[in-house]
Write a structure and sequence with these properties.
alpha/beta, 7 strands, 13% strand, globular, oxidoreductase, Sc_DH/Rdtase_CS, oxidoreductase activity, acting on NAD(P)H, oxygen as acceptor, SDR_fam
């Protein structure tokens, strides 16, 4: 590799992506640009010449465009885009009294920000001599119908559809959607909260049981895979939805 790859990450303030950022910096010698609504102390602790932290609300189109332009101005390249920014709320039933505005706010982050980010980064990704790559951080919810997760289920299904379509429309850019597994994150803690039980019904207990069974993944476990895919994802995975522990992902797992 003639130079360090330049990777943009959205939603980087979350714990899993602090660890993912460290993997990119240390294991892959990448230059990393993080986009997040808040710049946490954890991200500040990673400060280096190879890390640019930008405060950006991904639901704000002009803020995303500005952040991508700053990346190009500073580093002249974009080689990878990791789309992780997402919200879970509202936890609701399709037929309840949750206002449609709450669904629209959800889709602004989980779907429309993907389109904005991809459109902004595509010209640079097409020109990358390292091979442009986009990793859509998806979920098993994309292919399930978990009660109480209507917006989230639908938005992750839309994400996977965007990935498949992009792979057909942009064959020179590798696009892959990844299911990171059931990870010990703030989002999972919110799901286990008793306030989620009403919307989720009987399925709520299964999420509580993951803690008792010790089956939650540490954030760094899928983090290594996401980092590896953002730099070295093979062409034959473009358009695919893969699990973090599939055989095709094993080369990227931490030893």
């Amino acid at each position: 590799m003639s130079r360090s790859p330049v990777i943009i990450i959205t939603g980087a303030s979350k714990q899993v992506f602090k660890l993912f950022t460290k993997v990119l910096l240390n294991k892959y010698n990448a230059t990393v640009v993080t986009l997040s609504r808040t710049i946490t102390s954890e991200l500040r602790d990673l400060a280096s010449d190879g890390l640019l932290t930008l405060q950006c609300d991904v639901a704000n189109e002009s803020a995303v465009l500005e952040s991508v332009n700053k990346t190009i101005e500073k580093y002249h390249h974009i080689d990878g885009l990791v789309l992780n920014a997402a919200v879970l709320e509202p936890l609701c039933r399709i037929g309840d009294d949750t206002p449609i505005s709450a669904w629209k706010d959800h889709f602004d982050v989980n779907v429309f920000s993907l389109v904005t980010s991809v459109k902004a980064a595509l010209p640079a990704l097409r020109e990358s001599e390292l091979g442009g790559k986009i990793v859509f951080v998806s979920s098993g919810a994309a292919v399930k119908g978990t009660p109480g997760w209507g917006p989230y289920n639908a938005s992750k299904a839309a994400m996977n559809s965007l990935c498949r379509t992009l792979a057909e429309e942009e064959p020179s850019v590798i696009s892959v959607a990844l299911r990171p597994g059931v990870v010990d994150t703030a989002m999972h803690a919110a799901i286990r909260d008793l306030r989620a039980a009403k919307a989720m019904g009987a399925g709520h207990q299964a999420f509580i049981d993951t803690v008792a069974k010790g089956s939650l993944l540490k954030p760094e476990t899928p983090g290594h895979v996401i980092a590896g895919l953002s730099v070295h994802c093979p062409q034959d995975l473009s358009g695919q939805f893969v699990n973090w522990n599939d055989d095709v992902c094993k080369p990227f797992m931490s030893e």
